[in-house]
Amino acid sequence: MEHIDSRMLTQVRLEFDNKLDDAMKMLQNPTDAFNQLAIGSVDDRTRCRFPSSPLSIEFKNMLGLNGEVKPVFSNLADGSIITLFDKTPFPREKDDVICPHFIELKWANGCNFDCAWCYLNGTMRFRPGGKQPYFKEKNKVINHVKKYLQQITFPSLLNSGELSDSLVFEGNGSALSKLIIPLFKQQDMHKLLILTKSTNIQKVLSSKSQECTIVSFSINSFDVAKRWEKKAPSPKQRIQAAKKLYDAGYTIRMRLDPIVPLENWEYGYKEVIDYLFEHLVPERITLGSLRGLQSTINYSKDRSWVKYLNETSNWGKKIGFETRYKMYKIMIAYLKRRYKFTNIGLCKETMEMWDKLGMNYQDIKCNCIL
Predict the structure, then answer these.
(1) What per-residue confidence (pLDDT) applies to 225?
(2) Strand partners for 75
(3) Taking phi first (over 0 means left), then psi (-120 to 50 degrees means alpha), and beta for anything else, what does residue 348 get?
(4) What secondary structure letter does DSSP report for 110?
(5) 368 within domain boundaries
(6) How far is CA 276 from CA 9, 221, 227, 273, 279, in A?
(7) Cis amide linkage into residue 258, ω under 30° from 0
(8) How far is Cα 141 from Cα 137, in angstroms, rounded to an integer?
(9) Is residue 369 part of a domain?
(10) Residue 196 is inside which H or E element, if any?
(11) What are 182-227's pLDDT values in tens digits?
């Protein structure tokens, strides 16, 4: 029965792509698609398909954060494996959040850790298993990744940790290090972003994929992690794992997110920053404050963190503006003064916040982009 369902699913996908062929003139390479879009307007779309490939690629025009229209990759085939994360609209109002958009590699869903504010609780609320991890159809994932790496002719970064912890399956046959990293090692154009709280990095180390892999660890203050990031390794353990990769030549990024204004928060976050820089200097640090989509809040088992949220934006509820500003200002100043570190970005933060901090969101350098 499973075999029949798989064949039927494949046929449906082929019919989907054929309908797209009929709906749009099919070009044969990304350069032609970009040239066509260059003379078009915002939201124009086109697809291309290499003669040797059964999978088509969609490109579209979008407004960049600098206000200029530019052609970008949109999705491969049906978009279920590789697609552009573009859910945050172009910012126009002061309380609109800034996100430069990034490419998602949706190879797996779910996470074994139990962070109270995990948005997967809301995103996967309709699945019988909730956010219990599962690997998507392996042959499809491998095929889509191969075609993307072969056919996209400009450098890109694929985020493998948006809908799962990137290392969720390490140690078994579905591991990222076994199935995905070897594909990236076969080329030198694109890079894989691993986003994790895991310390299970042995196979990533032994893959010797320094040239094509960026590893980003999500950390928090020790008190916050102990209280709300259940089942996850401690921040010290994550930083120690990051150091092993760092010493082996991997590019390391850090997400200090979500920052929570717990009692004595300033001491707590300076403490974890000090511990980090005692071990390594990351390529960049992305700061983010506690926030929650309504679906995340509704399906969170422990909602004790929600009391800190008293402001709304187009990306859910947030900590009040002045408190967020104070936290960012203190932490950015500390990083600059003590460690001369300036490669700092903000995640899902408003245009008003970027402006008040004197930071240029049009030149954003955050976790999920090259």
Answers:
(1) 98
(2) 58, 83
(3) left
(4) B
(5) no
(6) 47, 11, 20, 5, 5
(7) yes
(8) 6
(9) no
(10) strand 191-196
(11) 999 999 999 999 999 999 999 999 999 999 999 999 999 999 999 9
**What pLDDT is attached to residue 44?**
96
Among 43, 78, 113, residue at a domain's last position: 78
- End of a domain among 45, 60, 78? 78
Q: Do 73 and 88 belong to one domain? A: no
Query: Do 112 and 39 share a structural domain?
Result: no
Give the model's pLDDT for residue 23.
44
Residue 9: its pLDDT value, please? 53
Please report, as a single letter, which amino acid is at residue 248. Answer: A
Q: How far is 101 from 159, CA to CA, in rounded Å?
A: 11
So what's the pLDDT on residue 8?
59
Asked whether the predicted pLDDT for residue 22 surpasses 80, the reply is: no
* CA 239 to each of CA 180, 281, 331: distance values in angstroms, whole numbers, following the listed order: 24, 11, 18
Q: Are residues 134 and 30 in the same domain?
A: no
pTM value > 0.85: yes
Average confidence score pLDDT of the chain: 93
State both tokens at 78.
Answer: 């049906």
| Distance separating alpha carbons of residues 210 and 247, to the nearest angstrom | 11
Same domain, 297 and 255: yes
Distance of CA 208 to the CA centre of its chain: 22
